[in-house]
Automatic annotation (TrEMBL):
One of its GO terms (molecular function) is oxidoreductase activity, acting on the aldehyde or oxo group of donors, NAD or NADP as acceptor. Keywords: Oxidation, Oxidoreductase. This is Aldehyde dehydrogenase family protein. Coiled coil: none annotated. It comes from Oricola thermophila. Belongs to the aldehyde dehydrogenase family. The active site is at residue 246. Pfam families: Aldedh (PF00171).
Length: 474
């Protein structure tokens, strides 16, 4: 049993003010693999006070010196990438190869984007005669990160905050805290001044709420569910602090009849199932032009049935379990609801995969003949569940794609380059990828509507942590 009961506050590992043990569950076995402490408001107060004390000197530290420390952090993360991957695999069930090469590797990848993006920040610029625009760090920042991509989200918040000259208090998910604690060890080894980075474990209703309400926190940056994001927003309202939110998604994947159908469908299924479907930008609604719809359904069925579910400790190309009992129950309930509402089950379905009777494993599932009035088409499942919807023509594809409360990501497959660009500009989403194109390090990550506000990554992510001041001199 791993025991990690201490918090990282003011440059030291400290015990919580009051003991409050919490077991971390290995989702592959449903057994406790670690124990941490859940913090209280008094622990938050201590961490915020440390961050407040550290802010003036850190904000005044030359950018070049901040960059040196972050480059040192980058080297340490790369050296410990195997440990980070092992922690992620244990705490949230990502298969070990994926946990190292994709999950843990997000830290150095985002660092690259931020270190390039910071070069493009105009810290001071002329405005008019005798007037300049100055950009300054906003202050003490409260950072709340989720369990599904733990290192990814920590990097997307901590790195830009520190580059901007802010100090911070991090509350990682209590479900998947182990990788965050290793990250804190990396920060400590890198030699950041005490109080610049602080970590307090805890749950949302206690630690998250205390952070959101706290009068000495100038900004909250939250990633998680839309429901929880709204709670952070409401709690922050009394102190009128800045709030940035990266929330849910129900991303459309539009496949036109002229696309390379097999490549588009197989790629879409694989992307939907990646990380056991626990990604906010997963392409979970596959919209297929009607002339090729039946063929696409057959291709998706075969693709889903070829997805292997296995032990996250084993090497290989497979998916692991969902993160928790609560997530397992939610996904099972939505699959049952889809069947009850008349969606046609073509692959997977309720229950665990054959031969598995323990762990939060689920069957890769595909529903066809879905329409946007169905629950399965509107709610974010956060599991390996794909819905397929036919459409007739470009106008209907755009209408169906935009008929969602979310607007995080969207995907298009077509042989017509002009149509790809035309449709991309009509989609109400923060990120659109055409024909499987990737995204470079430092790109803006975020969405429209109930997918949140603000952007993470690169210079956009750094700008979220900056205030703008005009100085006019006679």
């Amino acid at each position: 049993m791993i025991e990690k009961r201490k918090f990282y506050i003011d440059g030291a590992w400290v015990s919580p003010r009051a003991a409050n043990d919490f077991e971390v569950i290995d989702p592959a076995t449903e057994e406790a693999c670690a124990v941490i402490s859940l913090g209280a408001k008094s622990d938050v107060d201590e961490a915020v006070a440390a961050a407040r004390r550290a802010f003036p000197s850190w904000a005044a530290t030359p950018l070049e010196s901040r960059i040196v420390l972050l480059e040192r952090l980058d080297a340490i993360m790369q050296r410990r990438i195997g440990e980070l991957g092992e922690a992620i695999s244990l705490e949230m069930g990502a298969p070990i190869d994926f946990a190292v090469s994709e999950q843990a590797a997000c830290g150095p990848w985002h660092m690259k984007g931020f270190l390039e993006g910071v070069k493009h920040i105009a810290w001071e610029e002329p405005f008019a005669e005798g007037q300049i625009i100055v950009r300054e760090p906003i202050g003490v920042c409260g950072l709340i990160t989720p369990w599904n991509w733990p290192v990814n989200q920590i990097a997307l918040k901590v790195i830009p905050a520190l580059l901007a000259g802010c100090t911070c208090v991090l509350k990682p998910s209590e479900i998947a805290p182990l990788s965050a604690l290793i990250f804190a060890e990396c920060i400590d080894e890198a030699g950041f001044p005490k109080g610049v980075f602080n970590l307090v474990n805890g749950d949302g209703p206690t630690v998250g709420e205390a952070m959101s309400h706290h009068p000495d926190i100038d900004m909250m940056s939250f990633t998680g569910s839309t429901r929880a994001g709204a709670q952070v927003f409401r709690a922050a309202a009394d102190t009128v602090k800045r709030v940035t939110l990266e929330l849910g998604g129900k991303s459309p994947n539009i496949i036109f009849a002229d696309a390379n159908l097999e490549k588009a469908v197989r790629g879409g299924v694989s992307h939907c199932m990646e990380n056991t479907g626990q990604s906010c930008n997963a392409p979970t609604r596959m919209l297929v032009e009607r002339p090729v719809y039946d063929e696409a359904v057959d291709l998706a069925k075969r693709a889903a049935e070829s997805v292997r579910v296995g032990n996250p400790r084993e090497h290989g190309d497979h998916i692991g379990p969902l993160v928790s009992q609560a997530q397992f129950d939610k996904v099972q309930g939505l699959i049952e609801t889809a069947i009850a509402e008349g969606a046609r089950l073509v692959a997977g379905g309720p229950g665990r995969p054959d031969g598995m009777n323990r762990g939060y494993f689920v069957r890769p599932t595909v529903f066809a003949d879905v329409h946007n009035g169905m629950t399965i088409a509107r709610e974010e499942v956060f599991g390996p569940v794909l819905v397929m919807i036919p459409f007739d023509g470009e106008e209907e594809a755009v209408a169906i794609a935009n008929d969602t409360p979310y607007g995080l990501a969207a995907y298009i497959s077509t042989a017509d380059a002009e149509r790809g660009q035309r449709v991309a500009r009509q989609l109400r989403a923060g990120m659109v990828r055409v024909n499987g194109a990737g995204l470079a390090a430092g790109h803006p990550f975020g969405g429209y509507k109930q997918s949140g506000n603000g952007r993470e990554g690169g210079r956009w992510g750094i700008e979220d942590f900056l205030e703008v001041k005009i100085v006019s001199t006679r």
